[in-house]
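queue> pop job 88
queue> type: inverse folding (structure -> sequence)
queue> payload:
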């Protein structure tokens, strides 16, 4: 660090340079990040610059409960999953390092397993903030799928945690069946699915259960009718209170030759309790309540 204070009255000048090399950062006993060098440069009148270089060999290592990810990465052929190593994405405020492994579909007779993917990542702020670890099994947009004969299901799990603990937990699991038939003049199918979705983020949480039942029948390809019924019940918790929401939606579609129509009917109800709801004494004054009670005396 160099500080200059000029005697001619011009503004002082300062230059700072810091460097740390060849060290390893371990977080929560599950991820080790090998850093070759990190430098910091700052001077008055200019933006501070932070640069980071990871080790050329094995920059990220998964340990403890996530050691199976490293084992899969070492055993599976490099071309089997996206990329041959971790994804490193520097941003203006932090360094994002992630490792993703996608497994091919597995089929054995009536059993099949699809969309299996595992992701683990590390968000490392340059100056301030707290390192965060991220882990996901499958994804919300691409859940894993399990099928056994006419029964099937799927889901995903996503976890983010930092030095203070868990920041977010999100996941969903669903299971059901699908049956199709074809008797020549008529064909169609029936499905029934049920599952739950949950999310915990900070002081807010959301838990939703749902059931989806439907069917379709087609006669000679000229007339087809489909019916779908979706029921859901969710519980949402926040500092302002708790809310329970229920929703039912029925959709009926009819197709006859060149004519088709679809009608949906939806009903929604919600119940809340918390600091956001007014109390009785806030709505009714003492005098009004006495008059109301006196009418029934």
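queue> result:
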């Amino acid at each position: 660090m160099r500080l200059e204070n000029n005697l001619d009255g011009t503004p002082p000048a300062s230059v700072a340079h810091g460097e740390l090399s060849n060290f390893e950062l371990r977080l929560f006993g599950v991820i080790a990040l090998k850093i070759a060098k990190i430098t910091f440069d700052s001077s008055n009148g200019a933006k501070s610059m932070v640069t980071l270089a990871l080790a050329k060999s094995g920059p990220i290592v998964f340990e403890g409960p996530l050691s199976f990810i490293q084992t899969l990465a070492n055993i599976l052929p490099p071309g089997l999953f996206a990329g041959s190593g971790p994804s490193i994405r520097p941003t203006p405020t932090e360094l994002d390092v992630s490792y993703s492994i996608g497994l091919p579909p597995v089929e054995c007779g009536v059993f099949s397993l699809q969309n299996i993917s595992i992701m683990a990542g590390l968000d490392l702020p340059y100056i301030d903030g707290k390192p965060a670890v991220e882990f996901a099994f499958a994804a919300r947009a691409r859940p894993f799928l399990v099928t056994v004969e006419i029964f099937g299901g799927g889901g995903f799990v996503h976890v983010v945690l930092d030095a203070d603990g868990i920041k977010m937990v999100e996941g969903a699991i669903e299971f059901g069946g699908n049956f199709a038939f074809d008797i020549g003049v008529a064909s169609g199918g029936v499905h029934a699915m049920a599952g739950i979705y949950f999310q915990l983020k900070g002081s807010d949480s959301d838990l939703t259960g749902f059931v989806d039942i439907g069917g379709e029948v087609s006669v000679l390809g000229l007339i087809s009718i489909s019916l779908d019924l979706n029921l859901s019940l969710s519980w949402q918790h926040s500092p302002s209170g708790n809310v329970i929401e229920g929703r039912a939606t029925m959709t009926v579609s009819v197709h006859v030759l060149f004519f088709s129509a679809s009608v949906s009917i939806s009903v929604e109800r919600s119940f809340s309790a918390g600091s956001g709801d007014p109390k009785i004494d806030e709505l009714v004054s003492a005098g009004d309540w006495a008059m109301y009670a006196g009418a029934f005396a």
